[in-house]
Amino acid sequence: NAGVTQTPKFRVLKTGQSMTLLCAQDMNHEYMYWYRQDPGMGLRLIHYSVGEGTTAKGEVPDGYNVSRLKKQNFLLGLESAAPSQTSVYFCASSSGTANTGELFFGEGSRLTVL
Amino acid sequence: QQQVKQSPQSLIVQKGGIPIINCAYENTAFDYFPWYQQFPGKGPALLIAIRPDVSEKKEGRFTISFNKSAKQFSLHIMDSQPGDSATYFCAASIRAAGNKLTFGGGTRVLVKP
After folding, report:
1. How many CB atoms are closer than 10 A to CB B81?
2. What is the pLDDT of residue B32?
3. Mind telling me how many Å the CA of B112 is from chain A's nearest CA?
4. CB contact (8 A) between residue A45 and residue B105
5. A35 sits in which H/E element
6. How does pLDDT run across A10-41, given as a tens digit for each residue?
7. Cβ contact, residue pair B105, A107, below 8 Å
8. Positions in chain A short of pLDDT 70
């Protein structure tokens, strides 16, 4: 029972490099999210998707792009990494039904930008 | 703009004590208020949640108190145990608007044996 799986779990980048974080969920959920977690700031929403082929901006979208080509996958891209993007990134998914608002989170991807 | 404010940032209690974490929100359109628990190296996991038409909800040793008029809600951990040591986040969302959770800043709770 995998739930939400993120890859890679750790990555070190140099300023200006690009990379993609992959999120996969096996719960047939409609909604998917990317959050970043920084000390004292909780989790902040970067981008989200309410269905295959759709994406929308969250609270802190600058410097990131996303794609949802398949329902089970949600990719987060950094085109030109900056030290300010050093963070722990969490992917989450939700069924999208009105009866529950529960989000299921992956275990995180720790990114360091030098 | 921090729409959900959480306090305190950290809390130390003895085993059996009752840690209390408070949150305040601004957006009256929020209709779902969950608490998430996070252990080091893991993702947050839903602990308990409440809707604004209920003033209190209990699940095991965890209780949410909700005050709609004051736009505040709190988490109480009864008979706390060392295994409850974790970071706790309050959050709020509008379920019909993408169910995007807005999180508080988190509270690190340490329960001493």
Report:
1. 12
2. 92
3. 22
4. no
5. strand A31-37
6. 999 999 999 999 999 999 999 999 999 998 78
7. no
8. 1, 97-100
